[in-house]
Design a protein that fits this description.
Helix content: 40-55%
CATH topology of the largest domain: OB fold (Dihydrolipoamide Acetyltransferase, E2P)
CATH class of the largest domain: Mainly Beta
Largest sheet: 5 strands, mixed, barrel
């Protein structure tokens, strides 16, 4: 027992003598941990290009915030001024091109985006990085009638009102369970739009049905006319002689 007490006292004395070194070691470990955390969270980074977004942001479905500056009418892209967690005055601003993932937007949808989301703060969740843009889920918070905040999934809303249609899923998104869940949401919204007879796809279906029905009538008329032409030929001279 005395040997154990002496060993413990010796350890305490050694720690007291090297207190300065121990503090330096603790500070070094803390600084290293802070550096790793900053590299992972990137609180000061302002993303301006798809390549600026770390891959682990996509894997972790990290939510980002920004202001929609304008809509690119050619590709229906949202040009977003990304807002970092900690804003520093020395970091230059830039606009990140964002595509609402999983949807093909028509001209009405582009106009709707122009009137609804421009100059608004949105939350966007990166899903996949392309060369010229990043695919994202985009969420908009609006005030509801009961003065409560309502979060709108922009892709779902566009499909539900008939201003967009779901795109066909391609790899690697096909292997992402989170994206498949989002795509199922879009498919349900499309069914609602079709039930309400809204949107471009509904009019395509209706137009095809009308064309097919018109073709059937023309074919039926042609067949009846073809059968009646010989009768008209034989009846014609009789009428003339009479």
């Amino acid at each position: 027992m005395e040997k154990l007490q002496k060993s413990f006292d010796s350890f305490i004395n050694l720690m007291d003598k090297n207190n300065h070194g121990v503090q330096i070691a603790c500070y070094s470990v803390a600084l290293l941990g802070l550096t790793v955390s900053l590299r992972k969270v990137r609180p000061f980074s302002r993303f301006r290009r798809p390549s600026d977004i770390p891959n682990h942001f996509i894997n972790e479905k990290r939510e980002l915030i920004g202001y929609v500056k304008r809509i690119d009418p050619n590709k229906a892209l949202l040009i977003i001024n990304h807002k970092p967690l900690v804003k520093l005055p020395l970091i230059s601003t830039g606009n990140l091109p964002v595509k609402i993932s999983g949807v093909e937007i028509n001209n009405l949808g582009t106009n709707w985006l122009q009137s609804v989301v421009v100059d608004k703060e949105v939350t966007f969740i990166p899903i996949y990085k392309e060369k010229d843009f990043v695919q994202c889920q985009v969420l908009l918070t609006q005030d509801a009638k009961d003065k409560k905040h309502q979060v709108i999934n922009i892709g779902e809303r566009l499909v539900k009102i008939g201003f967009a249609v779901p795109e066909h899923i391609k790899a690697p998104l096909l292997e992402d369970p989170s994206f498949r869940k989002y795509h199922s949401l879009l498919l349900r919204a499309e069914k609602q739009a079709l039930r309400k007879q809204l949107g471009y796809k509904y009019y395509i279906i209706t137009t095809k049905k009308l064309i097919n029905y018109t073709n059937e009538l023309l074919i039926r008329f042609y067949k009846q006319s073809k059968n009646n032409i010989p009768k008209l030929i034989t009846i014609g001279p009789k009428i003339y002689h009479s």
